[in-house]
């Protein structure tokens, strides 16, 4: 412990300005040039984080109240009782140490929150900061929903854009996408270029993780389509954002080793979600969700795509194209469902049904995909993906 001495308040302020590590001030009230109460006011105005003990013969309540209102920690009257002064200083030092520890904890919490906010929604990030034991980040097997997004031909587009255009465009896109993910309390496991990998049901328990994933996929699609139109008006031909969603068991946790934070998931559930995202390209859809996910969502609304035999899997999986409620109840969806039911029944009339449907709704790429299959001799709903 070291001491600095000043003859008055003016000199004290100069010393404080030159020594930022001073924590405790012991000052009289009666001093030349600047008294102790004025010094307190100056310290309060400058928001200096230090504790002050007033030592004075003016022990009346007015001076005590003024000192306390101006931020004094304690007040000692003259004649000085030195054992009492020693106890007062010791108490003040303990108070300073507690304040310093609290500031350090706050700073650490703010750093942790800033880091975790890149991956987790604000709600989950705050839970992790406040109580790290409430959410287990260690490797564990659990039921989750996995969502992948990717922009069509984005790598080729990058080659044609100037950095001054690409940087703001990509940042705006990713900010909008992650805001939607966080609104559903999803976890951003990875961002690679324009592509996102999102988890629901981890690290915190989410019994409705499948419903959140579907709602998120629909909102992401709506945002991506709107963003694409805005880019088009600026002369940037941004590709379609494709989304794949699946639910099932996976091993999730922080697998970044001792130096890096990398909360992610492994397992077949993750691979299937990625394959479904890729399948959109051939199917002509923007969102492709598994039947396992759809079955876990109450009142799920979606158009059946077919039974996909994904690359690397022998067993076919029923897939759906999730749609908004108003789209599910419109005439176009009813027309598609009628044609698909004929396809499912291996009805020769399926060709005519899809042809009639496309005649009315020419932009329906999924229906066009099925019509091409049928015209090329395919039957039924099994679709082998390349």
Task: Summarize the structure in words.
- The protein is an alpha/beta fold and 386 residues long.
- Helix content is 48%, strand content 20%.
- The chain has 14 helices and 12 strands.
- It has helices at residues 9-18, 36-46, 61-69, 82-116, 122-130, 154-158, 163-183, 209-233, 268-283, 291-295, 325-328, 331-344, 350-360, 365-375, and strands spanning 24-27, 51-56, 74-77, 140-151, 187-192, 195-200, 241-254, 263-266, 287-290, 302-309, 317-322, 382-384.
- The strands form 2 sheets. Strands 4, 5, 6, 7, 8, 9, 10, 11 and 12 form a 9-stranded mixed β-sheet that branches.
- A hairpin with a 2-residue loop joins strand 5 (187-192) and strand 6.
- Helix 13 (350-360) packs antiparallel against helix 14.
- The longest helix has 35 residues, at 82-116.
- The mean pLDDT is 86.
Mean pLDDT: 86
Query: Which range best describes the helical content: under 10%, 10-25%, 25-40%, 40-55%, 55-70% or over 70%?
Result: 40-55%
SSE pattern: HEHEHEHHEHHEEHEEHEHEEHHHHE
Pairing-aware structural class of the strands and helices? alpha/beta
Label this structure with key terms:
386 residues; 9-stranded mixed sheet; 12 strands
Q: Gist?
A:
Helix 2 links the parallel strand 1 and strand 2. The strands form two sheets. Strands 4, 5, 6, 7, 8, 9, 10, 11 and 12 form a nine-stranded mixed sheet that branches. This protein has a three-stranded parallel sheet with strand order 1-2-3, with helices on both faces.
